[in-house]
C-alpha cells in the first residue's frame, strides 16, 4: 500500500503544465496580497523552501500542500491549477483536468471542476488499484465531502470512524479531521467526490 500524495502524472508535459500554472498563480496572488515568502509560508504552514520551489515551478507538491496554499491565499485548489474561469457558465476540456495524485499501482485523483474563491466546491474522480491508499491530515474546519462509489469498494476512515462504501452506495464525511481512502478489495475502485469548503 502507499500513502504517496505527490503529483506524479505519467507524462512530463502534464506535470510541467500543472507546475507552471501553480508557479504563476501563487506568485501573482502572493504579490497582489503583499505577502512575503516568509509570511505566506507561515500562514500556509509549509516550509519557505517548499514555497520557493513551488513558485519556481520545480516542486511536486502534494494535494495537502495545495490545499494549505489555497486556504492561505483565499483561493480554491481549482484556481491554483487553473481549472476555473470567470464566466457564469463554461466548459472544461478533458485535457484541462489535472491529475493531482498517482498511486504506486497507477491509481489517480483527477480534479474535474471547481468553483472560485475560498468558499469552494470541487468535483474529483478517483481510481485506486488494490492496496492503494491516500491519507490526509485534514482540511480547514467545516469541510465536507460527498463520495459515490461507481465500481469496487472504498474503505473510508475519518477520525475514529471507518466505513465500507460498496458499489452504488454513497457517503458523507466531515473531512476537517484526519482521513483516508483505501482500496482494501481485490478489484479496481472508482469513485467520484464532491468537496465543499467554507471559510470564515
TrEMBL record:
The keyword DNA-binding applies. This is XRE family transcriptional regulator. Residues 26-80 form the HTH cro/C1-type domain. One of its GO terms (molecular function) is DNA binding. It comes from Duffyella gerundensis. The keyword tRNA processing does not apply. GO terms for cellular component: cytosol. Keywords: DNA-binding, Transcription, Transcription regulation.
Amino acid at each position: 500500500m502507499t500513502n504517496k500524495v505527490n503529483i506524479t502524472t505519467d507524462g512530463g508535459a502534464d506535470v510541467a503544465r500543472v507546475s507552471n500554472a501553480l508557479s504563476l498563480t501563487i506568485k501573482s496572488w502572493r504579490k497582489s496580497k503583499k505577502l512575503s515568502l516568509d509570511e505566506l509560508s507561515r500562514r500556509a504552514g509549509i516550509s519557505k523552501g517548499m514555497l520557493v520551489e513551488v513558485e519556481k515551478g520545480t516542486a511536486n507538491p502534494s494535494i495537502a500542500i495545495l490545499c494549505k496554499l489555497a486556504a492561505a491565499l483565499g483561493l480554491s485548489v481549482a484556481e491554483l491549477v487553473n481549472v476555473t474561469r470567470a464566466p457564469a457558465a463554461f466548459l472544461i476540456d478533458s485535457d484541462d483536468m489535472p491529475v493531482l495524485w498517482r498511486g504506486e499501482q497507477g491509481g489517480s485523483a483527477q480534479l474535474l471542476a471547481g468553483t472560485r474563491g475560498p468558499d469552494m466546491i470541487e468535483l474529483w474522480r478517483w481510481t485506486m488499484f488494490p492496496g492503494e491508499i491516500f491519507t490526509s491530515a485534514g482540511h480547514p474546519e467545516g469541510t465536507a465531502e460527498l463520495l459515490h462509489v461507481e465500481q469496487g469498494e472504498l474503505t473510508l476512515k475519518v477520525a475514529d470512524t471507518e466505513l465500507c462504501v460498496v458499489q452504488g452506495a454513497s457517503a458523507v464525511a466531515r473531512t476537517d479531521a484526519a482521513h483516508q481512502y483505501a482500496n482494501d478489495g481485490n478489484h479496481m475502485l472508482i469513485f467520484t467526490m464532491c468537496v465543499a469548503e467554507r471559510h470564515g
